[in-house]
Design goal:
- By secondary structure, the protein is α/β, with parallel strands linked by helices.
- The protein has 17 helices and 13 strands.
- The chain is globular.
- The chain has a six-stranded mixed sheet, with helices on both faces. The chain has a four-stranded antiparallel sheet with strand order 2-1-4-5. A three-stranded mixed sheet has the order 11-12-13.
- 41% of the residues are buried.
- α7 (148-159) runs parallel beside α9.
- The chain has helices spanning 2-5, 12-20, 49-52, 56-63, 92-98, 122-132, 148-159, 163-176, 192-205, 222-239, 250-256, 274-279, 284-290, 295-298, 301-304, 329-334, 353-362; strands at 29-38, 66-76, 81-85, 107-112, 115-116, 133-137, 210-214, 242-247, 259-264, 267-272, 318-319, 339-343, 346-351.
- The structure holds adenosine-5'-diphosphate (ADP) and magnesium ion.
Length: 363
């Protein structure tokens, strides 16, 4: 992405390019032209120039089919928290289930660590779901008659891990999610937040490469929800797993996501960092989503800096281009001169009171 090049996206055109660029590293998951169409004539839709270009509503009227996911392509980088966001019905759950073929895609490719999982046989798929990709659901999916420790160890049990090793690993991840002391409780003795911690521990127990989350916190109270979001951030720092996180909540997306994919009616609308979505929304749908976001909390200095002008006093303090505006407000307002935005020893631009106030006033 452009943030790696150290070059400021100076024009709308540059910014649009930044939004579409893919990470330079080998992706963990690479989705290409993925379709999931429900209905009797589903198979004919992706390959038909005419049908594949219809909106979801038009397709439904013409064929009775529902296009839940339409021609989606994106890459997820190793260690990234990749968020998929959209209103209810936009196709998020269908998409995330297609990634492990819990729902069978109609067309396209899902390449996981170099292998197209659409070509996997049943055994390879089972191994994929048991060992390499774990999922955390909104409705925790815990086994009610099993204690916490046995819920957490369940995946290891069906994998055939020996009991002593299962219990050792379960104790480890129970500790990791802060549930030590509750090993022998039953799920219904725990609050919603704690049940979701069990879900997290269960997903982590098998040490998967990727964690998929489908709106895991949507049913939780706001305060618990905030705790759980912080928990995911902490876990991400500690275990560094690649995560694909589904949500309909923009503030959750901005808080967790390294990049965010916005979906509408099955289609990709925009992929970008929070700053890219807020700074250069692709259309009115995205603009509506980001309207209420305090811009100074999301935009970085590269988005608000201006070119150096003749007569600028360049003795001000230096900041990196990826510093969030909010974190530079005080320094800018206190400095008697513009601050310099510098990357790799290169002066990219400057930020003065006018640039800061334009953002803060608009927040
Ligand atoms: P989201 O998770 O974003 O709310 P979903 O992936 O659940 O969206 O659904 C996307 C669209 O696909 C919706 O219009 C939904 O009604 C439709 N859909 C989902 N599952 C099925 C199914 N099994 N049969 C027919 N339509 C479905
Ligand atoms: Mg859903």
């Amino acid at each position: 992405m452009s943030t790696d090049t150290g070059v400021a996206p100076a024009t709308e055109g540059d910014r649009a390019m930044a939004v579409h660029a893919t990470p330079a590293v080998e992706p963990v998951i690479s989705v290409r032209n993925l379709w999931k169409v429900f209905g009797e004539k589903a198979d004919g839709v992706p390959g038909s120039t005419e049908l594949s270009s219809l909106s979801r509503k038009e397709l439904k009227e013409a064929t009775g089919c529902v296009a839940a996911v339409c021609d989606l392509s994106f890459d997820v980088a190793p260690g990234e928290v990749f968020v998929v966001m959209g209103l209810s019905g936009s196709g998020k759950s269908t998409l995330v289930r297609c990634l492990t073929r819990l729902i069978e895609p109609t067309a396209g490719e899902v390449v996981f660590q170099g292998e197209d999982i659409l070509n996997c046989n049943e055994k390879a798929l089972r191994d994929l779901r048991r060992q390499r990709i774990s999922m955390v659901f909104q409705h925790f999916g815990l086994l009610p008659h099993r204690r916490v420790v046995d819920n957490v160890a369940y995946g290891l049990e069906i994998r055939g891990t020996a009991k002593a090793e299962r219990l050792r690993r379960a104790a480890e991840v129970i500790d990791l999610v802060g549930l030590t002391g509750y090993e022998h409780s039953f799920p219904d003795q725990l609050s919603g937040g704690m049940q979701q911690r069990v879900g997290l521990a269960r997903a982590l127990a098998g040490d998967p490469d990727v964690l998929l989350f489908d709106e895991p916190f949507s049913a939780l109270d706001p305060l618990i929800r905030r705790d759980m979001q912080n928990e995911v951030i902490r876990l991400h720092h500690e275990v560094g797993k690649t995560m694909v996180f589904i949500t309909h909540d923009l503030s959750e997306a901005l808080k967790l996501g390294d990049r965010i994919l916005i979906m509408r009616d099955g289609r990709l609308v925009q992929i970008g960092t929070g700053a890219e979505l807020v700074g250069a929304p692709a259309d009115d749908y995205v603009r509506d989503f980001v309207r209420e976001v305090p811009r100074s909390h999301v935009l970085t200095l590269r988005w608000i800096m201006r070119p150096v002008a003749d007569g600028d006093d360049l003795e001000g303090p230096e900041f990196g281009p990826d510093v969030i505006v909010r974190d530079a407000v005080r320094a800018v307002l206190e400095a008697e001169r513009p601050i310099k935005v510098v990357a790799d020893g290169r002066l990219l631009g400057v930020v003065g009171n006018a640039e800061i106030l334009a953002v803060v006033a608009g927040s």
